[in-house]
Amino acid sequence: MLIRQLSTAIKGQAICGTLQSQPNSLEDCRKGKITKMKLYLAAAVLMLVLAVHTEAQDEPTLEQQFAKFQTKVMELTEDLTQKTKTTFEELEKNELVIKTRNWLTEQFEAMKDKIAASII
Questions:
Q1: pTM to 2 decimals?
Q2: How far is CA 26 from CA 54, 59, 61, in A?
Q3: End-to-end alpha-carbon separation of the chain, Å?
Q4: Which family, according to the similarity comment (predicted)?
């Protein structure tokens, strides 16, 4: 909105042959006095406004937002996979897990031997 007003004001003033700015005071406004703005100053202000406006328009598109979301999900799953793998590796090395596994194996073998002895 500001860009449109500024560019319209500069274009209108350039057509008249002079670039004018706002009155310096209320009294100047009553008298109809308007100070003249230099062309280079008007051009600099317009370039500054256009630069700010183009920076504000650099918002990502919907496609870019989905690509960014996909990348984040992939990173999250890779991280979760790595953490899960590490946790299982640590569990395999845990002393309680090793003792439990060995006890269950011994109990299974003992039961298997009893069943084999009763069949024969």
A1: 0.39
A2: 35, 41, 46
A3: 97
A4: Belongs to the apolipoprotein C1 family.
